[in-house]
Design goal:
The complex is a heterodimer of chains A (111) and B (113). Chain A has 111 residues and is mainly β. Chain A has no helices and eleven strands. Helices cover 0% and strands 54% of the residues of chain A. In chain A, the strands form two sheets. In chain A, strands 2, 4, 5, 9, 10 and 11 form a six-stranded mixed beta sheet that branches. A five-stranded antiparallel beta sheet of chain A has the order 1-3-8-7-6, with no helix packed on it. In chain B, the strands form two sheets. In chain B, strands 2, 4, 5, 6, 9, 10 and 11 form a seven-stranded mixed beta sheet that branches. The chains are: A mainly beta (111), B mainly beta (113).
Chain lengths: 111, 113
């Protein structure tokens, strides 16, 4: 049973436009959510996080929105840049234990 | 944030041999480390939680006798893949939770031939 779901395996966006990556979760015990960027054969690189007491967190071009009632979060990247092309993983944790990852969404930003 | 060093980054071994992967927390005392495995185009799957000074907690479906985890100090956890088979070929990553979040090692690409 997949607790963290990223239903879009891929997303293509033009440079300068907004990228929106979505993530749904099923476990109501999750209280901490993170987004990671990953290249092949490398460890994940942390992008941004949000705790369950907030509904929005912003850091530069990256904004994460959390809708607890819908058990949904999204990552907005604006403006998108070609260097943003990578696989993006949504991850969640219940009470500081191990992260549970979604399957990832491959973002391609074309110039 | 915390820095984690994982070694080796890449290893090729013969079927039936054992391989040890090290994960070191360089600037943080980690009582708990996490081990993940990622198959091509798949998610990072939690294998086990490594606890300093006690036995690791394995996720369902992960063979504890095959994937030996040792966490003898607050800065080092090791994962040993015993009697490796080609189906064990994967990307293994360790992770540490620290005060401000989680950090990951750079991963180990294991290829069993």
């Amino acid at each position: 049973d997949q607790q963290v779901k990223q239903n879009s395996p891929s997303l293509s966006v033009q440079e300068g436009r907004i990228s929106i990556l979505n993530c749904d979760y099923t476990n109501s015990m999750f209280d901490y959510f993170l987004w990671y960027k990953k290249y092949p054969a490398e460890g994940p690189t942390f992008l941004i996080s949000i705790s369950s007491i907030k509904d929005k967190n912003e850091d530069g071009r990256f904004t994460v929105f959390l809708n607890k009632s819908a058990k949904h979060l999204s990552l907005h990247i604006v403006p998108s840049q070609p260097g943003d092309s990578a696989v993006y993983f949504c991850a969640a944790s219940p009470a500081g234990t191990a992260l549970i990852f979604g399957k990832g969404t491959t973002l391609s930003v074309s110039s | 944030g915390a820095v984690v060093s994982q070694h080796p980054s890449r290893v090729i071994c013969k079927s039936g041999t054992s391989v040890k992967i090290e994960c070191r927390s360089l600037d943080f005392q980690a009582t708990t480390m996490f081990w993940y495995r990622q198959f091509p185009k798949q998610s990072l799957m939690l294998m086990a939680t490594s606890n300093e000074g006690s036995k690791a907690t394995y996720e369902q479906g992960v063979e504890k006798d095959k994937f030996l985890i040792n966490h003898a100090s607050l800065t080092l956890s090791t994962l040993t893949v015993t009697s490796a088979h080609p189906e064990d070929s994967s990307f293994y990553i360790c992770s540490v939770r620290y005060q401000s979040g989680y950090t990951f090692g750079s991963g180990t690409r294991l290829t069993v031939v």
